[in-house]
């Protein structure tokens, strides 16, 4: 038995996979203490006989705990030890500004205040040679000040330590006397760009007390329930890492939840014959979109969280504040706005009956007949349509609209925001959305998918039978893996091929640690080279050629870079010198094959039709179809509302869907 657990802003999703098939569950999230909600959900499933603790051999978890800690500033008290003269790297940052013409823009405050940033004499040159030995006594003299400030973690980041980590390791040995977690930049991120490396190292250090305590609470609580004591955690890169790795390097799990959803979408798409996907994960609080090409997930090392760079590999996800709980309001100019503020899980949308009074996207769907009030998700009590109408009336009256017209406006504004997000990851990167299928999931994604596809001229929408819990399922579909890298920053043709071969071999040996417990032949390696033209400031990741490293290998790598540059930017310069910035290697063990057909429970008595609004002309009868009744080969003509226990799908007039052999509803949008 394997269990996947994903914590969202509104619901905590749990999927259980065993010989009997796949079972889906949703529970309300407990924002004040996410671990409490997870353990309560597991205890309830054990009590109901859904989980047999002795049969469980794998628990995989995706969580936004690390992300929320950074965004909310709830981090461990952290000190930074750095090279003399580089104390203010975090504040100097880069020249770029997110809002170029905002006269009142202020940069985010550094995670480590200036009084906790300490300098020590040492220097490694740009070639990796020691220019000035580390002053070990200066490091030791920091210990009393660090103790006096009650620091909970220490980050160490020296200049050019990615080329020669000896000084950082020496400093780490001395600072270990404090008895708090020590993060060395040369262990976490041995790549160039001092600001990004310092920022990533500091974030990692500050997260260690938070994530360590959270995972300890989860593992301790699950052990008391008789479940396995060690968990796997989804990393931002889309691979499952051991909980020990997540505790030591929590910066790697900042995009844990969204990455699980993209991995689940990729797995569903490949099984259904759609390797090119735009993924749409719309939950209660946010909407995440990503690109899958040729069955491969797009990744980046240029992400930011809370305005702070995190230069570790992560799934390239674009997130906006558009979810089922997104609040609708009128701005000072009288225009309708939706999000990014959200009603969350508590109090939630007005229709939840928990004290919420502001209109939300979910309230709009309920008023328009897209959601049936007697069949809510996640074990909620029946939804209150009258409360939803009262909430929306608060903005309908000033706009001179009926409640239904205002509800249609709320959905149109939310769709426009998601359309812009999809254009960012497709059109703005030279990709035509019409060449992809839109795979929609999350509790609210299938409600918006067809209307979004029509806006973007995407011909097909895929709605998996596990749409509402796909992020949790993705945890069981993801490979177990680990990423390593080495910064280089030299002209590619100036590096001896023997040196390139040695670096790659060393990275493979470091990454292979993830394969412990798996047969050696099961461990797979994937490597990329970060390349750029010598005059550029940004690089592209290019898959390295197969075969032995030699002159032909180098020429093939260069040609692949020119091709990738032309694809991304519309031009290439084959006559320019190519620079190798870094080599990155992933070792992974693929997951076991599994049947993804969920055991869908028959729905309670549903009406055969319901009145639903799709435009301002008024309501029309829409067929109501239980998701559990849709077997392979089933066909649906819109308008229709497909009701599942984990998500509701909406097929507007003119669309038609067919269920494939894997239970995926493939909708031709019309």
Structure description:
The chain has 670 residues and is of the alpha+beta class. Among the domains are: 133 residues, Rossmann fold (3-Layer(aba) Sandwich); 110 residues, Dna Ligase, domain 1 (2-Layer Sandwich). It has 17 helices and 35 strands. Helix 1 packs parallel to helix 8. 49% of the residues are buried. The mean pLDDT is 91.
Q: What's the layout of helices and strands?
A:
Blueprint: E1 2-7, E2 11-18, E3 21-28, H1 34-47, E4 58-62, H2 65-72, E5 78-83, H3 89-92, E6 117-120, E7 123-124, E8 130-132, H4 136-140, H5 142-148, E9 153-157, H6 166-175, E10 182-184, H7 185-188, H8 194-224, E11 232-234, E12 240-242, H9 243-248, H10 256-271, E13 277-282, E14 287-293, E15 296-297, E16 299-300, E17 303-305, E18 308-310, E19 314-315, E20 318-320, E21 326-330, E22 336-342, H11 361-367, H12 385-399, H13 403-425, E23 437-441, H14 445-456, E24 460-463, H15 470-477, E25 480-491, H16 497-511, E26 524-533, E27 540-543, H17 551-569, E28 578-589, E29 609-613, E30 619-626, E31 635-637, E32 640-643, E33 648-651, E34 656-659, E35 665-668
Parallel strand pairs: 1-4, 4-11, 5-6, 5-9, 9-10, 13-23, 23-24, 30-32
Antiparallel strand pairs: 1-2, 2-3, 7-8, 11-12, 13-14, 14-15, 14-20, 16-19, 17-18, 21-22, 24-35, 25-28, 26-27, 26-28, 29-30, 31-34, 32-33, 34-35
Helix pairs in contact: 1-8, 2-8, 10-15, 11-12, 11-13, 12-13, 13-14
